[in-house]
Amino acid sequence: MTPKTTSLIELPADLDCTRLPQHVAAIMDGNGRWAKKRGFPRIVGHQRGADALRNLLRCCKDWGISALTVYAFSTENWGRSIEEVDFLMTLFENLFQIELAEMVSEQVKLEVVGNLENIPPSLYDAIDRARTATQHNQGVRFTVAINYGGRQEIVRACQTIATQVQQGLIRPADIDENILSQHLHTADLPDPDLLIRTSGEMRISNFLLWQLAYAEFYVTDTLWPDFDRRAFHQALLNYQQRHRRFGKI
Ligand code: FPP
Q1: Which of 14, 16, 29, 228 is catalytic?
Q2: Which of 26, 119, 143, 235 would bridge 69 by S-S if both were Cys, CB 3.0 to 4.6 A apart?
């Protein structure tokens, strides 16, 4: 990321800076198809996808969007070929290592959510170092979901709460939405306002099932590696045309 000295750099004039989503979530889909269309191996699509992600993070900073959460690897993605899984794990590790200095200087606060118990130890260490180095940063909150599944996250939260009930720390009647939210990986983040999914698929794919309850969905046919500043601008324009009612009339 190139260092910038002021905020809201180059916010397009047709966007209302008072009505930007504060938290954007993205399902980064279409890397494989992007590569296939060009006759490249799938991993090239993931490399270009990482470039698109870097640019989107920079754009969030420039345009004053305070949180970005992306789905990098689902619990189902272990079903891909060993070569592709290994490549993705190494790509994540490299990103957290190579981009760390820049994330620190750009005030990005990195968080990684998901079940990190069975990821490669070297990736775990890279995540740990990057989290620690960025923990006090005040800029964009950048959350990467790795080995993440929304249902599993809710089940784990329920297990923790049930243990607390068993220990007599809380009563069943005390359990409410707030308590459940506090036991999710995203406990200290506001819920996403906008979910972007690329490559035209209209599925939530086990991503942030609880947290997306009132998010606006934006699906684009653009494949993730092509999701650039212009495509993000379109997503934000579309978002600003919505009237968010949160279930009210
Ligand atoms: C989905 O496209 C993409 C993934 C499973 C991996 C996402 C990873 C990146 C964008 C790399 C950068 C991320 C980080 C955190 C460094 P797909 O492979 O399912 O594409 P397809 O549906 O066209 O096959």
Answers
A1: 29
A2: 143
Distance from C-alpha of 120 to C-alpha of 86, rounded to nearest angstrom:
9
29 is an active site residue: yes
The closest residue, in CA terms, to atom 13 on ligand 1 is 50
Ligand 1: centre distance to CA 97 (Å): 19
Q: Which of 77, 115, 137, 206 is catalytic?
A: 77
Query: How many Å apart are CA 1 and CA 107, to the nearest integer?
Result: 11
Catalogue all structural domains in the chain, each as residue range(s) with its CATH number: 20-149+191-240 (3.40.1180.10)
Backbone dihedral angles phi then psi of residue 213, each to the nearest 5 degrees: -50, -40
pLDDT tens-digit map of 77-117: 999 999 999 999 999 999 999 999 999 999 999 999 999 99
Does the annotation count 77 as an active-site position? yes
Question: What confidence score (pLDDT) does residue 249 get?
Answer: 65
- pLDDT by residue (tens digit) across 85-94? 999 999 999 9
Q: By C-alpha distance, which of 148, 142, 147 is closest to 55?
A: 142
Cα of 221 vs centre of ligand 1, distance in Å, is: 15
